[in-house]
Structure formats: C-alpha cells, structure tokens
Amino acid sequence: MHAPTTGWRRCAISLLLLGGLCGTAAADELRVVSSGGFAAALKTLAPRFEQQTGHHLLLDWGPSMGDTPQAIPQRLARGEPVDVVVMVGNSLRKLLASGQLAADSATLLASSRIALAVTAGSPHPDISSLPALRQTLLDSKSLAYSDSASGVFLSTVLFQRLGVAEAIKTRSRMIPAEPVGMVVARGEAQLGFQQLSELIPVRGIDIVGLLPEQAQLVTDYSAAAVQDSRHASLARQFIRFLASPQAAESIRQTGLSPTATTAQQGG
C-alpha cells in the first residue's frame, strides 16, 4: 500500500526539480548599451527589473555618436552582441533608418538639459542670463564639454551664437569617452558642461546650475531593440519597463524628465 505513495512522492519531487532546472535555464542575459546621460537611471532600475523577472542585465556604456570604439554606432557596426540601446534620439533615428534597430520597439524615455559644473568649493560663476553666460565663458581659464550631443551643440552652435568661439578656442576641449565632471573634479578644467544627469553622480564637483533656457539643448533619450537580437521579446519587455510609471520617479531623481511616451520615430 505504501509503494504507490512513495512512487508518487518521488515523481512529484522529480517534477519540482525539473521545473527548477527549467526555470534556471529560462533565465536570459540581456545586453544593454546606454549613453552616459541615462546611465545613472539605468543603474538604479536594472536591479529592480532583474528581481521582478529573474533575468540578468549586462550593462555597458558609450556615447551616442562619434568615432571612439565605445560609441554605440561603432559597437553595432562591428557586430557586438547588443540587445537594447539607450541613446540620444537623433542618433537613434539614424540607426533606425539604416535598419539596425527594430522600428516598432523605439520608445522615448526621458529628456535632459545641459548644466555647468566647477571643482567642489570653487566660486560659482554667473550663468543666469545669456550675457552673463557669455562673460563667464570669456573670463574662463579652461573649459571642457562632452563628445556627445551636448558638446557638439556647444562647440558648433552655442559658442558661435554667443560670439565667443574664437576667443575660447585655445582653452576649450572636447572630452571623449569620459564624464566631463571627472575632468573638472581633477582640476583639469575650470568649467565643465554636460547633461545634468551625467554630472550628478560625479564626486568632487559643484553643479552651478542649468544653462539659461535660451542657451539650452533639450536632449531626448530613447531605447530600441537591436534588429538581430536573439532576445527580441525580452528586449521589448525591458523597454516597456523603462517607460513605465513605476520607473518614472527613479528617472526623475537622476536629473532627467521622464516622458513614458512611445516614440515611433525614436524620440
């Protein structure tokens, strides 16, 4: 009479073990590459997604544009196994147009503005108006800006518009593949310009504030699944999580403005 019961127990235990093994095998690794502007938000949100889903995220960072090996377009061009990218909207649109990203997955996540930082404890220059910002640039001993969207805007548009491009040419430089705030923290530049979300995590600097609205570039950050991702369904699940209301407050705390709006054209 006891043999059948024992047999059923063994069968049930075997099924439970098999289910556990199957659950482990079903856990996937999703490779995500993000530009620096969304990095702080991603570092905060990734553990939450992993806990909720049981899947593992492999995070890496790189500029949305440029020729450095870390740049997202360069990574995709050489065939790195990436599943999801988070990057500046204009750059993402180019990758959509080339067919490297899945158009139906493109989602607008947040927007960001440019801020100014100085070494911690240094005097805070006046950037409260366009004339004040112009004078601060002219009075500066050295300044640095990123090699991504904000830096390209500053060096090719704003400095020209303010009429200071030639005057500051020899004391300004673009910083590739490193947060501008770190350069300022080391005392290698008096002024550092970058997205607010990229300056907030850096120690050793004071954030003076956002540039005047007339001098701003509002940068959109969007996510999309890579076209040939082997984890297409999971990639889309992760993107929906990033755009969800539950992620909005974490995004806001990193200096970004969450949008939680699907962008069919990449932001």
From TrEMBL:
Molecular function (Gene Ontology), one example: molybdate ion binding
Domain of life per record: Bacteria
Pfam families: SBP_bac_11
One GO BP annotation of this record: molybdate ion transport
UniProt KW keywords: Signal
PANTHER family to which the protein is assigned, alphabetical: BLR4797 PROTEIN, MOLYBDATE-BINDING PERIPLASMIC PROTEIN
Protein name: Molybdate transport system substrate-binding protein
Organism: Aquitalea magnusonii
